[in-house]
Amino acid sequence: MAALDGDRETARRDGVLWSVGMDKAVQTIYKGSLVSLDATGYAVSAADAAGHQFIGVAYETVEIAEADDNDGDTEIRAFRRGVFLFDTSETLDISTDIGAEMCVVDDQTVAFSGTTTNDIKCGRIVAIESAGSCWIEIEGYTPVATGVTA
Fold first, then answer.
1. Average pLDDT for the chain
2. What is the pTM of this model?
């Protein structure tokens, strides 16, 4: 290739907002919810389920409108990094729990690592809002599944 002789729009992936193909069985993922890839590699509402990998927090609500959509035909954008406020099933203590690793319970709840069945890690506590809610710094799995775009 020859050297540039002018400006170039260079494609980039900043790693913060990812677009991920949804599992057609999901129907709806809500804005602000925790999102995972299921065992088939498609986006689903996060759950403490075997084979799931946490990828981030939904940027938008997406509904699959067509019953005959294929997996991945509908995409959802999710934040892969950031600090978000979530409920917890734990009773938190500011003197001991800052920095604690948290895992997915469901699409809006987190719990300490070791207290969930599948320990799907989603981030660390950076601040405690109340005894039952905390600010989590997330760093979702970087999706490499089929249907993932930036």
1. 88
2. 0.84
Nearest-angstrom CA–CA distance, 147 and 19? 8
By the 8 A CB rule, do 60 and 7 touch? no
| Contact indicator for 75, 22 with CB cutoff of 8 Å | yes
- 3, two tokens: 């050297």
User: Which position has the token pair 């949804």?
Assistant: 22
CATH class of 17-144: mainly beta
Quick: pLDDT tens for 102-130.
999 999 999 999 999 999 999 999 999 99
Q: What percent of the chain has pLDDT over 90?
A: 67
DSSP, collapsed to helix, strand or coil, labels residue 63 as strand
Neighbouring-strand partners of residue 109: 87, 106
- By residue count, the chain amounts to 150
Mean pLDDT of 3-12: 83
Query: Is residue 23 within 8 Å of 40, Cβ to Cβ?
Result: yes
Q: What is the pLDDT at residue 18?
A: 85
81-88 and 109-112: which strand pairing? parallel
Spatial neighbors of 31 by CB under 8 A, at least 6 apart, are 58, 59, 60, 61
Q: Give every CB contact of residue 68 below 8 A, 6+ residues apart in sequence.
A: none
From the list 145, 150, 147, 148, the residue with the least C-alpha distance to 70 is: 147
